[in-house]
Amino acid sequence: MNTNSRILMTAEPYGFGPSSKALAIARELAEAHAVRADFTGLGTSYSTAQRETGLFQSVSTSARYDAEGLAEAVHGYDLVISVMEPSLALAAAAEGVPCLYVDSLFWMWDWPDRFADVDGPDEWLIRRITDGSPLRRRDALREAINLPMHEAQYVAHRAATQVCYQRYGGGSEPTPSRSRHACAAKSVGAIVDRVPVAAQRRGDAPAVVISVSGLSNELTEQSCATGWAQSVIHVIDDAARGTVFEGTGIRVGGNAEILDTLSASSHRSLEIKPWSSHGEFMLDLSRAAAFAAPPGITSIAEAWSVGVPFFALPIQHYAHASILRRLRGGDAGSFPGLDVDAVPVAGDLADMTAAVLNSVISDLRGGTRARTAAVDRVRDFLASLAEKRTTFVARQSDRLSQLFVSAEGASEAANEALRLC
């Protein structure tokens, strides 16, 4: 490693999972190796990085669909680290900058084998991006950044210098396919932002931590996001009444843009307040009796890493359903939650996302049997914590230790990054 190496990081602006993983890797680089990176991003990834004072040398916005802007962004860097954000990885390939691509959903991508055809359009595009004249590379970059999301993910994985993917079940490897094999990826443990011991503080901590997650991205209409959050928070508020948690001890956080649209006066049992940093969130989580969130893979890993039982809130997009199925592995009792059957929709990802969110809103509206059952489900879980918390933690830990294997993914990814510098 060259101690003067310049590193640029980014993360996909979809929820908080990718940006939380970027923070975990950045903190490992800074604290274990005295290397501070720059960060560029959009949406939730940009706002998350902005809150981490001192972790990054600089934080800037990036031009996700502007080939010239992306090429300028990576110019002069010795390494790009991208957590599931294809655009900057593709720009790095076009500009000849080494790139570490980090992925927590490698097991889930349903890429057809034809993507890996040597004479197929995707492999041809990769060759144009990584080989040839600067003009040819730039033209290929313009084409690649406008591919549909799943296809852009494949091309970015293939164009990157190295891929590290977070394990999530199926032994140590995802289901084999020609397209996955072509990526030559390395597996790592769960990528989790550690709670710094020196930063731990005394004082009151939430008894239960709730996260409504990111909910703000290019695939989600704000009205759907707000409706999901309002519906779910109302259920939790009603469920907390009559329990030891009524009026105190439940902290609801997540995307500030969404939380600001909610009426705090109607939630007497809850404190609705975004966390000022991911470190603050992890400190609260580490001292909580339980954590409730949509079944995002990062939220699950974070709860597991600090020994806090996880309760699944309703899904927010198609990937959550796959994550939850793999999490439970036929044992739903170990991972309780609010399950809502989303209405199947054919179409683009935005239509699918809207259908999922609207299914939750419809199921949890006032007067429905589904809402009554949801309130009872949350209340039963809260009431069970006094006697069953230790059992939940043990059973969940056993399952998640099989899925993730270790919680050392941030360290493993950081070491891989430094190898490429």
Compact summary:
With 421 residues, the chain is α/β, with parallel strands linked by helices. 46% of the residues lie in helices and 11% in strands.
What does this structure look like?
With about 425 residues, the chain is α/β, with parallel strands linked by helices. The chain folds into two domains: about 5-190 and about 405-420, Rossmann fold, CATH 3.40.50; about 195-405, 3-Layer(aba) Sandwich (Rossmann fold), CATH 3.40.50. It contains 16 helices and twelve strands. It has helices at about 15-35, 45-50, 65-75, 85-95, 120-130, 135-145, 150-160, 180, 220-240, 255-260, 280-285, 295-305, 320-330, 350-365, 370-405, 410-420; strands at about 5-10, 40, 60, 80-85, 100-105, 160-165, 185-190, 210, 250-255, 270, 290-295, 310. It has a seven-stranded parallel beta sheet, sandwiched between helices. It has a five-stranded parallel beta sheet with strand order 10-9-8-11-12, with helices on both faces. Strand 4, helix 4 and strand 5 form a beta-alpha-beta unit. The longest helix has about 35 residues, at about 370-405. The chain is globular, with a radius of gyration of 21 Å. The mean pLDDT is about 90.
Task: Please write out the topology.
Blueprint: E1 7-11, H1 17-33, E2 38-41, H2 43-50, E3 59-61, H3 67-74, E4 79-83, H4 86-95, E5 99-103, H5 121-130, H6 134-144, H7 149-159, E6 162-166, H8 178-182, E7 186-188, E8 208-211, H9 222-240, E9 250-253, H10 256-259, E10 271-272, H11 278-286, E11 290-293, H12 297-305, E12 310-312, H13 318-328, H14 349-363, H15 369-404, H16 409-420
